[in-house]
Structure formats: C-alpha cells, structure tokens
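Researcher: Go.
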Amino acid sequence: MNILFLNNFNARWKIRYNELRAEFPDVKFTAGIEPEDRGYAITKADCIIAGRLNTDEINSAKNLMAVIVPYTGLNNFPVELTKQRDIKIYNTHANAPYVAEKTVALTLALLGKVVHYHNNLKLGNWNRSNDNDEMWITLHNKRICILGYGFIGSEIAKLLKPFNVYITGFRRNVKNGFDEYANLITNEFNKAIADSEIIFNTLPLSNETKDIINAENIINFKDKYIITVGRGETIREEVLYNALKNNVIKGAAIDVWYNYPGKSIEPVFPAKFPFWELPNVVLSPHKSSQTIEAVNAMIDDTCNNIRLFIKSNSFK
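Model: Structure:
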C-alpha cells in the first residue's frame, strides 16, 4: 500500500507522520516530494493526503482508492469524478467547535457594533445619542436560521442556546425535524429563512449551493443580518454588496470571500465590490479555524482517517 502526502508539514504533522510509519511498517509512506515529481508520485499512490487535486491528477492515479483531505471543504476536488471512480473521500470536521466560536464572536461584533464604537472612540466620539441607530442589538430572544445545519451549524446552535433563541436549521437531508439545539430542522430553504432575524450561512460550495442566495431571492433577506462562514460563492457577490449598500440587509459579518491572495505578497482585496467601505459590515480574512487548537485537532483527525483507511483495506 502506497500512501502519498502532498500537504505541507508543520512540527505536529512530522510527529504524527512518524507515528504512522512506526504503527504500520508494511505501508509505504511518501512525503516531501519535489513539485516536478508530483505527477509521477500521484500515478503510484493508493491513497493521497492533499488539500487540492485536479481532474487530470485524479485520472492519472489509476491505483487511487482514497483521498484524505486535511481540511473540511471539498470544493478543490472533482467530487463527481471520485464518485464515478468509487474513490472514497475523507475530510475532517474536527475544527467545527472552533469555527462556531469564531462565528459567534463575529456575530457579537456585528450586532454589538464593536468595530463601529471602537473606530469612533479613537476619534473621541462616544456615540452618546439615544437614537436607535446608535444602539447595539442583542442576541437574546432572536429568531435564528442556520443554513447548512451540519457539524459547524449544530455547534453554532449549541453556543447560541443560552441566549434563549429560536433556531431553525436548514439542510438537504433531514432525519428528524429537531434536535437538542434546533427547534426546527427543514429542507425547505425559504421556510428556514422566512421568520428569522439572523441568518448564519455555513453552506459548503457545490453545484447545488453556488449562488443559492441571489437576485431572485435576496428580498427574502430584507431587514435581516447575515453571518457567512461557509463559502463566499454561495452568495452572489454583487447581490450581497448591493443589498448591504442599500440597507436591504441590515448588516453582515463575512469570513469567506470571492478573491483570495494565493501566493501574492501584495495587498489583495477580498472582492470586486468595496464591502470594506460599508458601515454595516464586519470583515474577517477567512480565519474561523485559524487557532492552534483547531489546526491540531484537524491534523489528529486526519491521521485517524488515514488509520481507518489502512485498516479497512489491509485484508483486501
């Protein structure tokens, strides 16, 4: 069995990699290959650990039985092709509690006008007016919708429950109509958002979810707040910007975007439209799982997925 690591290693990865080699001495583990050797190594692999693989690479990997992703998102993989080839994909949701924590922090920053007050007080402005526009918004007793009620969504619901909120979860596959955190779980998109005041968007990016919030249905989000930590392209960029600019949507906290820096060392703005100029937006540079505990949890869980793959195929 040949297991190929294409991900970058930090100190913890090196420790876990050596543990796997000691635990499974009959398995060939390969890591740290040069970029020019990547293509050939992929053709020989039974299992690949990677954050990204393209269609040509999957097609060239004739022996491939599994792809193990050290993150949550699968939008960097030709998922339909892996299904056709019966290649299993393992990913990790070990970061879910930490993403949920950051999501609630962004929510409190948005509703609590933390950035607004901070910037004004730096100028000596205390926002002393009793006008509604100068007051912050409480989470208590609000009606919440969580789009993408999965691992992260349920962790968000768990953290929000002490605020005595009513939670509606939206997901494609509904096993039960509620759970210990959500008052209602539904697969009806419009029903999920209709009566909610605050929308949490944790949806992954897929053919079904791309632009799921668009020009046709944005009016259904009127006078609501949106906190989005799933994938940026689940919301049409121009539609979201205009809805915020024109106060159709009351406000947004955004951690996932439309334009990323890649390897650029120059400043890169996160969108074509200037969200950063709007007073009702809190911006975050895709950092929801960027804490040491979350990173370590994902590494450990990924290694457990590798063990699961090896053990389930050791007698084949």
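Model: The chain has a mean pLDDT of 95.
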